[in-house]
Amino acid sequence: MTILIVLLCIAILIVLISVFKINAFISFLLVSFIAGLALGLPPAKIPASIEKGMGDVLGSLAIIITAGAMLGKLVAESGAAQKIAKISMQVFGQKYIQWAMVLTGFLIGIPLYYGIGFVLMVPLIFSVVYRYKLPALYIGLPMLAALSVTHGFLPPHPSPAALVVQFKADMGLTLLYGLAVSIPAIVIGGPIFSRTLKSITAVPIASFSPVELADQDLPSGFKSFFTALLPVILLAAASFLPLLLNPDSAILPYILFAGQPSVVMLIVLIAATWLLGLSQGKKITAIMGIYADAVKDIALILLIIAGSGALKQVLTESGVSNQIAYYLQHVELEPLFLAWLIAALIRFCVGSATVAGLTTAGIIAPLMEQTHTNPNLMVLAVGAGSLMFSHVNDAGFWMFKEYFGLSLKDTFKSWALMESIVGIVGLLGILLLHLIIA
Q1: Which residues cross the membrane (predicted)?
Q2: In whole angstroms, what is the distance from residue 173 CA to residue 155 CA?
């Protein structure tokens, strides 16, 4: 009955948005209240649950998305995006530009959380799209597939890293196996799948439409690439420097502070203001005007993401993920496939890959010990399952839809299907590895 209620609530949300054209944020709030009542949450606690869900998702993303939008608009307005696109096309050529996007997404995705990587890479994607009149999904989906796979499969991302600890797996082996599984998942879900989507018309957010400038007015290649990659450099340094320092080092707390994503984005925004603004002859008032316009462009996106967080929290507090896991844990299936299936169903119901992964871990751990399943492969199986079935209760779904200007139908046909493809290909790769190393 619980799963039926969840399915009905998701159906109501889709109908409100796509059929009755109700604003997505309002639709999320209405369905969150309906879901809370139908799933038996105390009525007086439902508003607090909704507020907590909105606060949790915005608490982790508001600064990143807002600062990322400001950075992206400055990159576009200053001509840095034009310069990056021009150099990328010179190096790879239009024929291989997809593979440049895949490689960039993979390298960016290893140290960065998905949401940060998405926000930072969207301006680069759109700069290539606008400059060379290429289909947005053809260029963007390969990069985002790489970002998504690294988020779900590879430590040091939150869910895989936590699963390594819970399953007592080996971090190095998990990363090695994860790389082997990731490559075919990215290739099939990214460059190959995106070639089937050329008929879908995407209208990328206008804020990132680059201004065509004369070559002599463009910032240098160093300034352009350095500014775009500075967040990655800082976050990577914050990840690796602590491994080289003594735990008692006096500078370690400051490195950890400077490595927080919100702090990194503020540092980068200050640097970009100088490198792509003031040093290029722009006045500070003009730069602040660019930033103000960027915030206007993404205000509704922030509200929609907050709404998805509200629904996720209501579903999580209702205990639906535990009920799904309870029904499935006694099913006679290969443990790796069972773990993948549980994670996939929880992901479908609650919308969060991290929640799906961590909930599955607590259920599957006893079975894994009884069957002596390889813990490194179990981490990957849960990670692959947690990427499945991304839809209207997932913040990533809405970020993709709104940034690329897609209809709900086309977002299902592109984003949701891509996420399921990488999850299925990942499972097949894991089962194949299991046969080889068993």
Answers
A1: 28-46, 58-76, 96-129, 136-154, 174-193, 225-245, 251-277, 298-316, 336-365, 377-400, 420-437
A2: 11
